[in-house]
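In this section we walk through a basic example: taking a raw amino acid sequence and producing a predicted 3D structure, encoded as discrete structure tokens. The instruction is simple. Fold the sequence below.
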Amino acid sequence: MPTRAPALRTPHRVVVPALVAAAVLLVTPFAGATARTQTPGPTPAAPATSPTTAPPTTATTAPARPAPGGSVAWRPEGRTAAGRPLVHRGNANGVELAWIDPQLTRLVFAPGTRDPGGPWSWGGQIPDAVRPLLVAGFNGGFQMQDIPGGFYHEGRTVKSLVPGQGSLVIYNDGRATVGEWGRDVSLTPDVVSVRQNLGLLVDNGAPVASAGNPGAWGTSVAGTATARSAIGVDANGGIIVGMARVVPQGLAQAMIAAGAVRAMQMDINPDWVTFGFFGTNPDGSVSGARVMGTGGPSNLFLTPHTRDFFAVVLEPHVVPGGSKVVGAPPVGAPAKVKVRK
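The resulting token sequence is shown next.
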């Protein structure tokens, strides 16, 4: 059985359900957000001192910051928060790549107005209240009629969640991971969203055997090297998105070069593959612009969209040691977080 990469469970992260009692957030998070804290590691005990020996200075161990890996030459792009970039971008053999910080952001799944249709809290678009927190957005997966599996969101299952299918799973504390349903991931009580889309493309850091068979990865309208997208997870829990006009094997190899230990193909074909950043207009409104991919809605999910998508939003985040501004241009509305000492 393939070795599982660690899920996005890191020892420095603590879920704080009663955050209001401990901190003041001057920004409204999206519905269901659970703020995270970073807690420093233990301070080493100071050795005994004599009257003539000054006590040594001890330093608090800062929580480890995740960083993109693999063999890609990464560069920071887009929004920053807490003094660090939230997204890095790179390229591997013509495949455009984005690495998303798993500590300071969270993914939000949004079903489309037509596929699958029906009432959902976001109504197929990013709500006004969430827009100040936006970092990026990208396409979802195949239409429900074109895959064996389905999705789970807001306590409801559309179609069914099929064992063996590649699954992007989002948890209620903001963690996200990619895995095989029934082996790596399952519908535990802390799951808030699951999106399935065919089998895994990368497993245990290697392409799956079927990656060499383009016919196994959906119907192309532009030849085998059509526009394709993928999402994966690295060994430290970082989320990786890849997009290009490429065959499945090439997409898998690029995701591995970016550090992915597991990855799944998402939507394909030129009209649907998109990844973009959000920025602030002179009038204070928020707009999106595509930086990867070949299509997608021109407004990047700010008006109702027929197909499902994912938004990357700034995680309400508590930083140890007093007040800290979280969030920076180009998107406005910084959040000042004051921590009880």
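Looking at the output, two observations stand out. The CA atoms of residues 271 and 295 lie 4 Å apart. The first helix runs from residue 248 to 257. In the next section we compare this with other chains.
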